[in-house]
Amino acid sequence: MGLYDGNTILDLSEEKYLQHRQLTHMKPTLKEWIKDRIKKGCRKKLLYKRIPILSWLPQYNCGFAVSDLVAGLTVGLTVIPQAIAYSSVAGLPPQVGKMQENFLC
After folding, report:
1. Which end of the chain, C or N, has fewer beta carbons within 10 A?
2. 3-state SS assignment for residue 85
3. From CA 65, how far away is CA 12, in angstroms rounded?
4. What is the pLDDT of residue 74?
5. Cα separation, 10 vs 17, whole angstroms
6. Could you state, in order of their start, the residue ranges of all structural domains in the chain?
7. In this structure, what is the dihedral angle of CA atoms 77, 80, 86, 89, given to the nearest 10 degrees?
């Protein structure tokens, strides 16, 4: 007979149904579209591209953590007087510079 063999489309196996959709060039259902997007979007290469921490975190060690901590403290301690100086140059109270420093870092 035909594709349905006297049955409704609900009686088709998933494989036959998908073949039928491809042959008739029907748009995918929302469920099929989401499934396809998840398959395409969750590839390892794409995840590493979108979330860079996944590539360098496995090689991160304690030496890097100490260096990062020192760098953070250095920048933090440098920005405080710099922000206060900029506020005084602008003719504002030092508290405004300190408040701006919190937003800029």
Report:
1. N
2. helix
3. 58
4. 93
5. 9
6. 9-54, 62-104
7. -110
Q: How far apart are CA 99 and CA 83, in angstroms?
A: 9
pLDDT at residue 43, rounded to an integer: 77
What contacts 88, CB < 8 A, 6 or more positions away?
A: 94, 97
Query: Two tokens at 96?
Result: 């405004």
Q: Which tokens go with 80?
A: 């405080």
pTM: 0.46
Query: For residue 1, is pLDDT > 70?
Result: no
Query: Distances from the Cα of 6 to the Cαs of 13, 97, 105, in angstroms?
Result: 14, 79, 70
Pair 48, 69: CB distance under 8 Å: no
Smallest Cα–Cα separation from 99: which of 91, 74, 86? Answer: 86
